[in-house]
Structure to design on (558 residues):
């Protein structure tokens, strides 16, 4: 469905035309601070007037538990069956033995776990999550993201965030909000690798988002296969399970053929398929065995290497610049 | 100065040989104030929660009524109820005039807006984050109000203390609808009025001291229950 939202009494005015929300898909609303993301989600949730009439579960931006027991908070607004489900989800988030404690003793991350378990246990056909991973410690985010994706299931979701990894871990689609306006929307990987203009590129950056399968683990590193391409990166993924691969276009280096491997773990030979001039930067699409690598380089480097459509190149990305995220 | 010392000495003497007559007045004061505070809080808390959280027609008028009620002159409230309960008045048949029941009714009228105003203010003062979460829980109206009141528990304690303070110290309404009848409707405040009028200052000060102690004890106790000091 397409939603148009307007909220004049803020600066800048929120004026979103035709935000596309697809049933069964998770749309990330991405934008910098002050873009109007929270106003947008509050309109969708009905806590500000003027949004659509629909049924949705809603996780507000800041976790708040009310004075009382943690377990009591977990069950607020839920029926018996949903409560049982919330308890199970809370246990999977490591909160199982905290439910008898007063909510006031919980840390910010723990409160968020309770709030996440509670909102996912609800059964509305849409789920709205405002910065769901922000209060969670970095090393726990992947696990919480996985549980969120599972908990949302085949329902539709709107996830508000200003964090690229959160977007990559949770979204299937993306809408970019800048200064109260919708600037671009589409499938997540497409928006990340093909920002529609320099304003969007400035906000979101240019990134590669691939879907693959975990094939190896080595310390904090892991490898995934994306089509016929093997990629090493940082992340806690399971071998044999679907995962996502995220790295920025700026992290991609153009290596001359035969150049020593150095510390660059990921080296893929390919052919330049597309060149997009973006002012100070050039975006290259390099086809490496059926997978497209989007690289951002300077026009100078481009000229120096004599790159044009059809040129053969070796692209390289350090494994430490690649994030591997669980989930498909 | 000698005069004041004399009054104080008289007061101490009155208290030291206080008989059942004074204790009856104290008992009636406590009973009437406690009953009107209890009823006023029972009515005022839900009203306050509804004013803070609800979206309904007439909310603006109700808010104004509560604001006016918080500052309503007690003697005027007494007068209006006197007219209602007067033998030939609209509810004269109930025979409530100059009874403790009439005093309780008058004080409920005074206490309810205070309780409602304090609770409404403290719920609205919870801030944006709890209110957003409360809305997100999709609770029914009653459950939503109960969570909010529980969260604003200190405000409820303040409402109890403020309501009790208003009614126990109030003289105009109980005097007009109660009539200050010895052994029937005389309370500490009306006793002070009577003793002062008769220039029995020692007795008046003694009654005043008892009133002060009651107000202090109730405020401290309620503050403890609410978990916050003043």
């Amino acid at each position: 469905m397409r939603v148009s939202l307007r909220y004049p009494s803020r600066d800048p005015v929120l004026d979103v035309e035709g935000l596309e929300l697809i049933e069964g898909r998770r749309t990330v609303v991405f934008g910098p601070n002050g873009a109007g993301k929270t106003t947008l989600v509050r309109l969708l949730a009905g806590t500000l007037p003027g949004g659509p009439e629909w049924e949705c579960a809603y996780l507000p931006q800041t976790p708040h538990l009310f004075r009382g027991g943690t377990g009591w908070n977990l069950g607020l607004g839920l029926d018996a069956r949903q409560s049982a489900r919330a308890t199970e989800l809370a246990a999977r988030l490591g909160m199982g033995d905290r439910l008898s404690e007063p909510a006031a003793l919980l840390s910010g991350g723990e409160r968020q776990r309770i709030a996440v378990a509670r909102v996912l246990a609800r059964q509305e056909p849409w789920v709205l999550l405002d910065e769901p991973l922000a209060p969670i410690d970095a090393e726990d985010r992947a696990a919480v993201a996985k549980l969120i994706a599972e908990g949302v299931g085949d329902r539709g979701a709107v996830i508000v965030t200003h964090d690229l990894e959160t977007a990559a871990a949770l979204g299937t689609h993306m809408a970019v909000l800048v200064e109260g306006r919708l600037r671009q929307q589409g499938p997540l990987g497409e928006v990340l690798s093909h920002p529609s203009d320099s304003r969007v590129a400035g906000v979101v950056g240019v990134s590669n988002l691939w879907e693959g399968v975990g094939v190896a683990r080595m310390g904090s590193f892991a490898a995934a296969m994306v089509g016929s391409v093997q990629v090493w990166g940082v992340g806690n993924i399971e071998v044999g399970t679907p995962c996502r691969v995220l790295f920025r276009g700026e992290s991609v280096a153009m290596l001359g053929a035969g150049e020593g491997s150095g510390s660059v773990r990921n080296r893929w030979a390919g052919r330049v398929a597309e060149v997009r001039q973006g002012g100070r930067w050039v975006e290259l699409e390099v086809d490496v065995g059926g997978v497209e690598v989007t690289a951002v380089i300077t026009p100078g480097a481009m000229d120096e290497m004599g790159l044009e459509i059809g040129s053969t190149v070796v692209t390289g990305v350090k494994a430490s610049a690649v994030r591997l995220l669980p989930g498909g | 100065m000698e005069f004041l010392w004399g009054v104080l000495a008289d007061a101490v003497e009155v208290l030291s040989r206080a008989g059942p007559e004074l204790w009856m007045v104290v008992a009636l004061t406590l009973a009437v104030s406690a009953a009107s505070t209890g009823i006023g809080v029972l009515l005022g808390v839900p009203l306050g929660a509804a004013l803070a959280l609800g979206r309904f027609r007439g909310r603006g008028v109700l808010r104004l009524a509560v604001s006016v009620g918080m500052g309503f002159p007690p003697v005027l409230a007494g007068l209006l109820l006197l007219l209602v309960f007067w033998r030939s008045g609209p509810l004269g048949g109930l025979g409530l005039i100059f009874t403790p029941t009439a005093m309780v009714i008058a004080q409920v009228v005074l206490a309810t807006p205070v309780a409602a105003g304090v609770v409404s203010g403290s719920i609205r003062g919870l801030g944006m984050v709890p209110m957003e979460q409360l809305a997100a829980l999709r609770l029914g109206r009653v459950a939503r109000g109960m969570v909010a009141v529980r969260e604003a528990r200190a405000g409820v304690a303040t409402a109890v203390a403020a309501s009790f303070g208003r009614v126990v110290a109030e003289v105009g309404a109980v005097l007009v609808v109660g009539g200050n009848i010895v052994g029937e409707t005389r309370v500490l405040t009306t006793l002070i009025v009577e003793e002062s009028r008769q220039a029995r200052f020692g007795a008046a000060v003694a009654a005043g001291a008892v009133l002060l102690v009651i107000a202090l004890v109730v405020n401290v106790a309620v503050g403890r229950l609410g978990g916050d000091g003043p």
